[in-house]
From TrEMBL:
InterPro entries linked to this entry: RNaseH-like_sf (IPR012337)
Cross-referenced PANTHER family: HAT C-TERMINAL DIMERISATION DOMAIN-CONTAINING PROTEIN, TRANSPOSASE-RELATED
Protein name: AC9 transposase
Source species taxonomy: Eukaryota, Metazoa, Ecdysozoa, Arthropoda, Hexapoda
Source organism (scientific name): Trachymyrmex cornetzi
Top-level lineage group: Eukaryota
Length: 200
């Protein structure tokens, strides 16, 4: 995937003006946003910088744009993370056709907000190459407790119809919340061994 962001620096903020996204085997998605504030609100210095960028860099005028600025965050998130419904459905269909998968989970914080991200990996039976996809980037409200981690991971697994027989491993860091989540709710080695003895 290729993502191109263009915009203006106003004060200490980067004002997104244009987003272009090119995904593999997909058409180019292109968005031009309206300005977040009137031109008259800018200082003389900011107007000079914006005029220079318009003339010599990307050619966009401050007033150009058709998409409301309030949609910037959602559209950029969809472009970068791939949370559009069609992408999820494509991943879901493919995951249903493979026998075994591995998932990863991680919790992180940014700008006083927390998130849980998950990815999935599998071996393509035709090419024998590893393939993968991002399957979740969820807002994580409250404390990062082991039971909340488990709840979100299980919910994502359920949404993609991943049962314990399909998931070979879930990889996470060794944070105390992750360790406790897998100790309390994870499969034991005896469960895995017994399952593999039954299917072989």
């Amino acid at each position: 995937m290729f993502v191109d962001l263009q915009g203006f620096i106003v004060g200490k903020k980067f004002i997104v003006k244009e987003v272009a996204v090119l995904r593999t085997e997909s058409i180019l998605s292109h968005y031009i946003f309206t300005c977040p504030m009137p031109w008259s609100f800018l200082t003389k210095s900011e107007k000079y910088c914006a005029s220079w960028l318009s003339a010599y860099h990307h050619g966009l005028q401050w007033e150009d744009g058709t998409i409301p600025y309030s949609m910037v965050k959602r559209l950029i998130t969809m472009a970068v993370i791939g949370t559009e419904e069609c992408d999820d459905n494509k991943t879901l269909v493919y995951v249903k056709t493979v026998d075994f998968v591995c998932t990863t989970a991680d919790v992180w914080s940014s700008s006083k907000r927390s998130y849980l991200g998950m990815t999935i990996y599998w071996i393509n039976s035709d090419t024998l190459k590893r393939e993968g996809a991002a399957i979740a980037c969820r807002r994580f409200k409250g404390a990062h407790t082991y039971d909340k981690v488990t709840e979100i991971i299980n919910k994502v697994h359920s949404e993609f119809e991943l049962n314990l027989n399909k998931i070979m491993n879930t990889i996470a860091d060794n944070g105390s919340n992750m360790v406790k989540a897998f100790k309390m709710f994870g499969r034991s080695e005896s469960d895995v061994t017994l399952y593999h003895q039954i299917i072989t």
